[in-house]
Amino acid sequence: MREVRRIREEDVPRLLEISAVELGSDYLSEKDFLEAFETGHSFCNVVTDDGYPVGFAVCQLFGPEEEGAFLGLPDGPERELVLSQKKIGILDSVSVSEEAKGTGAGTLLCEASVEDMRRNGCTMVCAMAWKSVSGRTNIAGILTRIGMRETVSIEGYWNRMVSSPEGHHCPECGAPCHCFGVFWYKLL
């Protein structure tokens, strides 16, 4: 049976495995998952199949004054829209294991996470999707299914999101990463 629930400490090793394969070895750490235990400004949902974790969504809740820390959008209409909101939720890091791809696990996970953001008073949900140098956007199908809209693309975006001096160790193009961050959003 498939379900979505909050992260548990015993999930962390499995989620780190999924993250390393899907997002790169330097993108999330054990500390990142432990900090995502519900704090009022963050949470992590886990999708399971018969109790076994097959994916996760690390989510952050923030105010417009924190746009730079959470998104770092260039000046433009997308940034202005974020700055006009009272509370924003971001699908910060979302990934499902290879065996769970195409089964609806990611959509279920994101729908549950967006609903949690709505219940927490968010007026907008957004995501920075990874668009590879080959042109594939990792979760475009899921984001479209949950009603989000694609906007601006930022080349080399992921290098700013890691502390590696050589840049992000991308699973597709190595370090530094030349892929794009693509801003998606939905007003709630």
How many domains would you count in the coordinates?
A: 1
Strand line-up of the largest beta sheet: 1-2-3-4-5-7-6
Please report the number of helical segments: 6
CATH topology: Aminopeptidase
Reading the helices and strands in chain order gives EHHEEHHEHEHEE
| Record field, number of beta strands | 7
Percent strand: 25-35%
Q: What CATH architecture label applies? A: 3-Layer(aba) Sandwich
* Morphology call: globular
Mean pLDDT reading: 90
Radius of gyration: 15 Å
* Computed structural class: alpha+beta
CATH class: Alpha Beta
What secondary-structure arrangement, pairings included, does this model have?
Layout: E1 2-6, H1 12-23, H2 30-35, E2 42-49, E3 52-62, H3 67-70, H4 77-83, E4 88-96, H5 105-119, E5 124-131, H6 140-145, E6 149-155, E7 180-187
Parallel strand pairs: 4-5
Antiparallel strand pairs: 1-2, 2-3, 3-4, 5-7, 6-7
Keywords:
alpha+beta, 7-stranded mixed β-sheet, 188 residues
How would you characterize the overall build of this protein?
The protein has about 190 residues and is an alpha+beta fold. The chain has a single domain (about 1-185), classed as Gcn5-related N-acetyltransferase (GNAT) (Aminopeptidase). It has 6 helices and 7 strands, in the order βααββααβαβαββ.
